[in-house]
Design a protein that fits this description.
By secondary structure, this protein is an all-alpha fold. The protein has three helices and no strands. It has helices at about 5-40, 60-65, 75.
Length: about 80
């Protein structure tokens, strides 16, 4: 194998390794947020590192969608005096 080719191969491997580490670093918080959201309400403060927690439920998402008001909702109601 030519010496010049080995240098490019090593640089490519190190570049892909660094990119992979940065991607893992960026995706980890998103997976933690989803994992916490799947926990039952009585286990929200648990320090478990399981990707899918025991007793996982979509109950928190149901509450979010059905029982809360979007934060920007008042801004979408246009008040027009005289109408």
């Amino acid at each position: 194998m030519p010496k010049m080719y080995r240098g490019h191969l090593l640089r490519a491997i190190l570049s892909y390794l660094a990119l992979s580490l940065f991607c893992l670093f960026a995706v980890y918080p998103i997976t933690r947020i989803i994992t916490i959201a799947l926990r039952p309400s009585d286990q929200l403060l648990s320090s478990s590192l399981a990707l899918i927690p025991a007793g996982a439920t979509f109950g928190n998402f149901r509450i979010l969608i059905t029982e809360t008001v979007p934060p920007l909702a008042p801004q979408f109601h246009c008040h027009r005096p005289g109408r």
